[in-house]
User: Fold these one by one.
Assistant:
Number 1:
Amino acid sequence: MTKQFMFDALRQAIDEEMEKDDSVFVLGEDIGHYGGSYKVTKDLHVKYGDLRILDTPIAENSFTGMAIGAAMTGLRPIVEGMNMSFLLLAFNQISNNAGMLRYTSGGNFAIPLVIRGPGGVGRQLGAEHSQRLEAYFQAIPGLKIVACSTPYNAKGLLKSAIRDNNPVILFEHVLLYNLQENLPDSEYFVPLDKAEIVREGNHVTIITYSRMRYHVIQAVDTLVKEGYDPEIIDLISLKPLDIETIVNSVVKTHNVIIVEECMKTGGIGAELIAQINDTCFDQLDAPIIRLSSQDIPTPYNGNLEKATVIHPYQIIDSVRRLCILKV
């Protein structure tokens, strides 16, 4: 076991897969000699050269389209978005090409493409650099979407995504790159379609993902001292949702709280509520509580920015209200 930062874990995943497979390459803005905005590709150009660690112009639509074309020919491109918000410029390529070509070609083309990079609400990055695009892309057929939350699952998910024959979007949170964790020295993979049960419990199922995992854990530390017994599920897979794991938990706890950084309107939480109601509504003792970010552009002002996202005290209050009869 070796202690690693999350950005190093991601770098190791890329390095290992590039070493094993000559068809894997990375492209994006400032990923070569500069090493990427968060140093995920630091020094890889020295080992693999400028044609496999490919610096691109500031033209997301062009280089994302180029990556999709490369995937159609049998290569395995990894697109790094300097900030995931910028990939809105490539929305057409991702939706109309990456997501659809396998289907519209009658299966003649596979699109083994990974799109990854930083997103989420940082610390005063402004509205255009604080967007959460997971809900934007969730509605697109043909995509797989995952969100890493620890160095361990970041590395395992990226390795699995690189080897998958479908387009995969990996969301990394801008505030989690400096997390540290002991990682196995041997090779491992994390499945792209499974949630993680972070903590088992009986009183309430708290479903979350990405950075909010740590707000939930902080809240649960307080709740356990008060006698509550929450179960924590980190979704990891945002598309497809691991509804089997979620249903098994709901059958046990009969209460659900969803904690997300995504916006409330049309967010991941909204889809979760729909699927839970479709599959196990009769198991619920109370309506599902959804704790989501405010439906406004993220303010630059630090205090206003904090007010737009969910904090541990809100999770604690919600559990107390929902589970008052169970303690």
Note: The first strand starts at residue 2 and ends at 5.
Number 2:
Amino acid sequence: MLCYIEGQKAPDRPDIVARLFKQKLDELMRDIMNVHIFGKCQAGIYIIEFQKRGLPHVHMLIWLMPEYKCKSPSDIDEIISAEIPSQIEDPVGYKMVTEYMLHGPCGGKHMDAACIIDRKCSKHFPKPYYAETTIDEDGYANYKRRNNGIKVSKGKATLDNSFVVPYNRFLLLKYNAHINVEWCNRSRAIKYLLKYLNKGPDRATIVIQENLRPTGESSAETIIEVDEIKNYLDYRYISPCEAVWLLFSFDIHFSKPSVLKLSYHLPNHHTVTLHDSESYMRCYIGKTTKTWEPRKQRGCIGRIVYSHPASGERYYLRMLLNIVKGPRSFEELRTVDGTIHDTFKDTCFAYGLINDDKEWAEAISEAKLWASGAQLRDLFVTMLLFCNVSQPLTLWEVSWEALSDDILHKK
């Protein structure tokens, strides 16, 4: 596009960069979710991020239907490659891989590369050679990287298959861009990826201080000069591409099927939202028939929001909502065998939900599966407050996952 506009380059037109990236991303999602280039998909999620230099990129997770999942190394080889194609047999693939899918050069004479941390490549390149694709004991795939003598010169460095980023040939050739494709079939890896996708935007630490500096004398002070332009440049972190992306109202996050947050509240704690022109009396006029109706929007998953075990009645209310089917009032939730109990906690006792350690075991299991690290930490802190701990514990040094396993199995 820019060849028709004299004197401009891609960094000068973040609006074109954002639009082009959005078009490619939409087409990529159609290929995966609708055309099924990897097979039929049951779910997908992605998040848009922007590099410090401004370029957009996407992190994506795709769940395939069970019958289309890669269950053997040969299945992985059909969709993922980590080798440089032959320049004679596949000249187009050779050009694309050498242009977009080679890492580095780094290490050796290139210790100033961005990926070098403590004199080692943070991305673990160069990778070891493998005669064929294997799956190790931890469930991770070691892609086929043969030492077949195919090499390419990049600057003063010579790179081979040990520097190839795993890719899918169809996507690479169609979109003419860097697209890293990985096989992931372990719960721990998926949990890490989901945490990475939902980590939120970059954050900055700032310091607020007075504009006066004492000179050592009893009452003399000097004014500190502030370079407002320099401070603006130091603290600015929204790139032009990100600003344009937001101005265009493009989605930062995508998920299919969508997840509907199901909120709940204690009696008389309902959230009321009013417009300026409305009377508060109108908010309490609702439907007379309190009945369940079929959801109009299909393909949506409902999830009840998390409640901390130390939140009191709210926690027990959430527990009952997962047990009692079709309640039409708080009284029906608190009714067990014709008896209306005073509190939700008493109702849980009547159902036998908290008569023993079952309450804590279920809370730990739920927090371990999908709650954040902070929620899991708070849960353990609450448990320790209820327990008689004779020896002090350094909570930050505790392995939460291992500790939860020990408690669940009563070790």
Note: Residues 390-401, 406-411 have pLDDT under 50 and may be disordered.
